[in-house]
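Our preliminary data section would be incomplete without showing what the modeling component actually yields. Below, a chain of 348 amino acids is followed by its predicted structure, encoded as tokens that our downstream tools consume directly.
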Amino acid sequence: MLFTRIYKVSDYATDTNDFNLGDVVVNGVQPFLINVYFKEFTSFDKQRKTRFIDSLKERYNNTIVNYINQRLLEDQCACIECHYIEAGEYNMEFSFTKNSKEVRIHNENVDFLCVSTHFDSTNRYEDAFALLDEKLKKHTHSYGNILRQWNYIPDICYYNEGKYEYTKFNEVRQRYYSNLSEYPAATGIGIGGDTTRIITFSIKSELDVLRLENTLQTPAFYYSHNKVDPNEEKPNCAKPLFARALLSECKSRKVLFISGTASIRGEESVADDVMTQLRITIENIEEIINKSNIDRQSIVLKVYLKNNILADEVLSAVKKHFDTNQVLVVQADVCRKELLIEIEAIVG
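Predicted structure:
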């Protein structure tokens, strides 16, 4: 089954080939996806950052390694987020296509696909979805097979050529999701630079899947048009097409993917300070966990802060509430200007 681990890197060794990083193989299982986050670097440190990523690629040469351009808001040099599937348990075949960033792990019962796409072109959303579409079809997967998707959107809250960037993204997503009546768990979040990145987990199997909505929140795909885009006057504008959470079960093992969650009740943003928004966000996450009836054996959380204010306090509060050290805090713009924090989780 799928699981996630977070590893913090506090220092670099003098030798650039030895980054003081522990072995991230868990019970003999190598991660199929590694996302790397860095604290703010000077120009002098850029070469070390590149060598660190190259070192990971060399050490885990059958793994997708992504640099995620969101600033790490912790007292660490770097952080790596590792995603695994217990392939050995199911005697699976493994294939990795390095240049196109796809991993397929499969046997006669389970067919799992991870695809990572990224573009900084003028038509970056269309290009990223077109490549994802191509990779899904190549392996006879469809959008209906997607469990979890991360959408990293540059300038997510800004207007460009008269249109909100998040609206542009939603319009493209809506076209590719046009045949769906149910949607995957997902996060739509800001990222530095000009590169859009989409990371997708897709699976075909006898997996039991339950999509969950939060009784405290309006489903995102039913939002009013002015909540999706304050300047959008068309009632039929493209909505954010994702489920609040997705619960998967295979061989009595359950995993709950909780989408990016913020301080929203109904469809209204609530509160204007970070700590109050954090409290309401946690209440929304707990509502989903309670609704899923999952046995909370482990939980991994990623916290997105619009600003670096109170990062230490937020990290401490999240660790204390959920009783875990598996927490990552980064700086990223959230999809509404008034929202200061967003949290996603994987519970297993």
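The mean pLDDT is 89. The two ends are 9 Å apart (CA to CA). Preliminary results of this kind motivate Aim 1 of the renewal.
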